[in-house]
Amino acid sequence: MSAVKTNLFLFFRLLQTVTARRLWNSFRIRVGRFMKTGEVRTMPESLSVEPASVCNLRCPECTLGKGGFTRPASLMSASTFANALEPLSHWLVCCQFYLQGEPTMSPHLSQMIERAHRERIFTMTSTNGQTLTPELCRSLVLAGLDQIIVSVDGTTQEVYEQYRVGGSLQKAIDGIRNLTAARNELCKRNPAIVAQFIVFRHNEHQIADIKRVAREWGADKVVLKTAQIENLDNAAQLLPQNQRYSRYTKDSNGNYFMPKRFPINCLRLRQTMVVDSSGNVLPCCYDKNGQFVMGNVNEQSATTIWKNQKFNMFRQWVWHTETPPDICLNCNG
User: Fold this and answer.
1) What integer pLDDT is reported at residue 136 of this predicted model?
2) What is the reported pLDDT for 2?
3) I need a surface site. Which of 104, 187, 223, 293 has the fewest CB within 10 A?
């Protein structure tokens, strides 16, 4: 598909998820941003789950990849996913199957996607593409996956492996081709295949190349993403020279920082429930080590956790103070 056709496909798939209840809930979520209260009276329109908190690569700016992961590594069980999904399914528009780790390492990924798809929920995942075998690609297509992001941060192995440490560019390319072949074989338009290119200083010279070759590999569109840098002391060596592809700003002393205004009127805390591989509900995707656990879907209903006192106190902290949690400081939302 061309980029235009891909966007139209995704738009119509989202339209197919619409119900009166979901539309009203999504409207109220956005109106709620203008309220002064720290409580929410709506339900999440998006669910972000972590199929696997393990990975096959060692990306240096990833908490898991660089060895800074402190919570137990695990695979999400099918029952944990059901506990997260079922209480929320009437309100959910989208379900994202990624957080930390490599989602395709979960043996339950296709099963979980199919379950969400049956509820008329838009489904998407993100992968490094190393394990996209023909068999897995076929099962993802049959499950009804709507969008898959394949990270390809270089057009040559030498450049690619500087960030995707331990990875093979050829495997990622083969993964994209396997997805395309599975779609063609099954006469399906899904999933839309997005080649994602995180722009660093070492690969920004390949931006024009990735836009050309990714289409040749079979990707439907290319997305250029700004890099998140956990240790800004290293920013000068990592960030691209073209400021257009950086989420950080340099001050008069040459130090990089995330330009933010406080308090933070964060929509994510109204919009998305994040559930890690063990079933813990986290406030957002930036709580990578589970510093702020709001509850566990294996012990309480997801709807109860979403509106509990602990979660509302956290929202109050973010929305109404000048000193938010540390996890908020590096967020570009």
Assistant:
1) 98
2) 74
3) 187
SS (H, E, C) 177-246: HHHHHHHHHHCCCCCEEEEEEEECCCCHHHHHHHHHHHHHHCCCEEEEEECCCCCHHHHHHHCCCCHHHC
Mapped onto helix, strand or coil, the DSSP state of residue 125 is strand
Cα separation, 14 vs 107, in Å, equals 27
pTM of the predicted model over 0.85: yes
Question: In this predicted model, what pLDDT tens digit does every residue of 156-185 receive, in sequence order?
Answer: 999 999 999 999 999 999 999 999 999 999
Three-class SS string for 135-181?
Answer: HHHHHHHHHCCCEEEEECCCCCHHHHHHHCCCCCHHHHHHHHHHHHH
**DSSP symbol at 104:** G
CA distances from 110 to 117, 139, 152, 257 (A): 10, 6, 22, 39
Helix%, strand%, coil% for the chain, nearest 5: 40, 15, 45
Check residue 108 and give its pLDDT.
97
HSE, CB side, 13 Å, CA atoms: give it for residue 22: 19
Alpha-carbon distance of 17 to 45, in angstroms, equals 11
76 C-beta neighbours (distance < 10 Å), count: 26
* Non-local CB neighbours of 53 within 8 Å, separated by 6+ positions: 64, 69, 71, 72, 73, 74, 75, 99, 100, 101, 276, 277, 278
The Cα 79–Cα 99 span in angstroms is: 18
Q: Which helix (H) or strand (E) holds 46?
A: strand 46-49
